[in-house]
Amino acid sequence: MWERLAICLAATLGVAVLWNLCFRRCNRRRGERAVVLIHSALAGSGEVTAVRWLEPSVLRIMLRLHTRLFHKPQLVVRLVPRQNPLRWLRHWRRAQSDTFTFEANLEVPPGFNLQVGQHRWFGRSRAHLPAHPESWEQQPVTRLILTSRQSWQREVTGMMNALLRCREREVQSVGFSPSPPHFSAIIKPESLAAEDRTSPTVFETLKELAAEVTASRR
């Protein structure tokens, strides 16, 4: 009995070690592809200066952008922690994917704390319609803003107007803070891989959002 238990424990430990090593390498390759993707998305507006792994599934990518608006810009890439089975299962159950968080300081720090998230809801008008929204016929409606603020400062109004002009699914959330980092935004990886280079890049969109707040503080 004890021999079987010891064999089971050894086998479980071996599988866990093998799983960890394999998916560490997998995340390392995904991180390398993320760096290539970001370098391509900069499209002459900046370059990658350094890459540092903080955890097996988290890396920090330091940037140099051709603008004076952002100071110490960086992207924090959080990959799904596949090297840890329990954490991976939790992400899978919650349908969580890789995230790219842009962070930077501003020349003129904002005078407020603000977190803005974009949410979209879909509803089927008929029960027999396909479950996936991609196959539906959609009609745009006026966007609705839900806020806990009783009154908005002028820079908040300008930032919200810029955010409403963002392309669909480009920016998931935006944050402003008087303390560093002054500006943060979660962007979707697919927005970096956009093939239409005639439209503003995601970094140009972030610049527009931050510029609205900085201009109003001068």
Overview of the structural elements:
Helix 3 runs antiparallel to helix 5. The N and C termini lie far apart (76 Å). This protein has helices at residues 2-42, 85-93, 154-164, 189-192, 202-217; strands spanning 46-55, 58-65, 70-78, 99-106, 114-117, 171-176, 183-187. The chain has one domain (2-120, 143-217). Strand 1 (46-55) and strand 2 form a beta hairpin. By secondary structure, it is an alpha+beta fold. The chain has a 7-stranded antiparallel β-sheet with strand order 1-2-3-4-7-6-5. The radius of gyration is 21 Å and the shape is globular. 21% of the residues are buried.
Distance between the termini: 76 Å
Strand content: 15-25%
- String of helices and strands: HEEEHEEHEEHH
Biggest sheet character: 7 strands, antiparallel
User: What low-confidence regions span 5 or more consecutive residues with pLDDT below 50?
Assistant: none
Task: State the shape.
Answer: globular
Number of domains: 1
* Rounded mean pLDDT score: 78
CA-atom Rg in angstroms: 21 Å
**Beta strands, count:** 7
Record the strand order, biggest sheet.
Answer: 1-2-3-4-7-6-5
